[in-house]
Each structure stands twice: as structure tokens, then as C-alpha cells.
Amino acid sequence: MPFGASPILRQSLQLRPAFELALRSSCLQLVLARWGLETAALMQQRDNKPAPDDERKARAVEAITTALYESGLDDHATVKEKTMLDKPYKTWEYADYTYGDHWESLGILQWILGRQHTIPPYYSNFDRTRLFQSTGIQPIDPSTVEKFVNQFMSPQTHQTLDGQQLQHEVDVAEAWFWRARAQVLLGLQDEIKRADSAKTENGKTSPLDDTLKAKHIPHALRKMAAEIPKSIPLAARRAQAKGIIKEVEAEDFAISVEMKSSESDSPKTVSVPYSNLDENHHDAIRKIAEARFLAFAWSLGKTKDWDADQVGEMVSINPINAIWTPDES
Predict the structure, then answer these.
(1) How far, in Å, CA of 319 to CA of 171, rounded?
(2) Is residue 176 within 8 Å of residue 254, measured between CB atoms?
(3) Hey, is 40 helix, strand or coil?
(4) What one-character-per-residue DSSP string does 208-231 give?
(5) Mean pLDDT in the chain?
(6) Which one of 31, 133, 260, 316 is most buried, by most CB atoms within 10 A?
(7) 51 or 288: which carries more pLDDT confidence?
(8) Which DSSP string do the residues of 253-298 spell out, in sequence order?
């Protein structure tokens, strides 16, 4: 039977005003537009390909930065976002490129605002072209930012989102974020055990500590590393019983994968357990889960700032992670 959140849990989910979500969405769109230009330039450099349209792209970069300030979004962008947009074209550093993970955050904000009808599975991405087109924002015309945001100035705008639907999607986000973190702990289980036994001398952080911090694993979750092999099957069963995930495969969260068959031109969809994926796919799913969790947490006021590191210390949005919420009698 699908899980129905208790009244207490429902009351804990209070969205920020819709115009705040629209402003945050607009900031993300401008940064991601710049990200696209910088990523394309980086790929050309790596492949030693000529860039005949460099001047056009440089003008596009200037237009994005101009749109930030002329639209007034600079008052709502983070310090990091403004710093990234203020940098000259082709001077981004590695940390700047990782901002591309926020495509999934933008998708969640657009879903809450009613501009996206569905949220893709947590092993699939939002359609980036649709995300951009859904706002009508064009960096070359800063007035399009104001036009988009003005549509959400009414405090009642976000009320069109069904509360039970929001609760369900928050539960889904929590479940996949938990599973993604569990995989990190599973991969580092032996290392964590050795580190906890030896203890770090002189109070210095170890490479393990840096890895866990980079992958947003709170210290509270590190303690459960030893129990992860037992916890994953239990979490999968509970999540399915509560209607949070649709399928369980080999006592794990099921991932739908398209397999090409030599007997047919059309791919066949099969379900595989999360743990059977390779490290690259695990990392990709973790980034999707993190970005979507960030968007929900911020939109619901569970964190004041738009800060992935800050949200990385959170264990759940609900008072208790939806997987482990006691069953209703």
C-alpha cells in the first residue's frame, strides 16, 4: 500500500513564495547558459579543434553577464554564481564546471512552478532543452527575466501544486539520496573501518575525510557504514512497500536499463539492481539525487542558503527520512 504521510509530516512542508523560486530558477538558468558555452569551449580545446565562432560565443557570454545585472538578478544570485559569471570567457576552473550538476536542481524548481509536468526517474536527466524553453528567458534580452518572474509574484501561485504530490516527490528524493550515499559508504566500507580503528593522528583530516566531504556524506551517516550491506535490502523493501520506489531487483533499488539485442533493432528495457552498476553510473545517479535534494530542501526552507555543501550535511527533509518513517497503524 502506498505510503501516506502523517499530518505532522505534511505540515512540515511549506514552500517558499513562488516568486523566490522563480528568481532562483532564473539565476540558475543564466549560470547554466554560461556553463554550456564554457563546456563547449573546453571540449574544443581538448580535441584541438578550431573555434571559428569564438567571437560570437564571447558576445553571448557578455550578454549573459549583462542580463544578470540589468535584470536585478545580481541581488539574488549567490556569491559563487556572480563570481563565475564575472570571469572572462574561457577562464573557468574545474569547480566552476561542476555547476553543471545543477541542471537537475533547475528541473525540480521548474516542476514546483508547474513548468515541468513530471520528474524523470533518478537514473535519468531532465530534458535540458525543455528546461530552457519553459521559462522564455533569453539572456540577450534582460526583460525576459522580469517577464518570467512577474508571472509568479502572487503569493498563491504555488498553491496549484498538490500537497500529497509534493510530499511523495520529497519522499522519493530522500530515498534516492539515501541510496546514493549508501553506495558511497559501501565502496569505502573497509577504508572507513581501518580509519576508525587507527584514528587520525594530530587531529588532521585524512584523505578519507576529504572524500566523504566532497561526496556530501554527513558524519552521522558514516557511523552506519558497517550496517550498509544489511540496510540496503531493508531500505529497498520498505521504500517499495511505502510506494516510494516502484521496483525492487535482487533486494535493491531497481534501475531500468536499455539493452540492445542482436535479434532486434529496438532496445529492450531490463531492470538491474543499483549495486550492479559501475562506478561512473553510481556517481552520475548520486549527482542527480544531490541536485534534486538540494532544490527540494531549499524550496521548502530547510536551508537558508543555496549551498550544496550545507545541504550535504542534511540527512533528510522530513523529520525522519521517508524510508525509515514508522509505518502507520
Answers:
(1) 11
(2) no
(3) helix
(4) HHHHHHHTT--HHHHTTGGGHHHH
(5) 88
(6) 31
(7) 288
(8) BEEEEEEEETTEEEEEEEEEEGGGS-HHHHHHHHHHHHHHHHHHHH
What single letter denotes the amino acid at residue 240?
A: Q
Q: What is the largest CA-CA distance in the chain?
A: 67
Kindly report the pTM of this predicted structure.
Answer: 0.89
CA 46 centroid distance within chain: 27
Among residues 287, 309, 273, 270, the alpha carbon closest in space to that of 124 is found at: 287
Q: What are 246's three cell numbers?
A: 516502484
Cell numbers describing residue 83: 563570481
Phi-psi region of 90 (alpha: psi -120 to 50; beta: other; left: phi over 0): left
- Supply 319's cell numbers: 523529520
Distances (CA, A) of 323 to 18, 173, 234, 269, 289: 28, 11, 9, 27, 15
Measured distance CA(22)–CA(113) in Å, rounded: 8
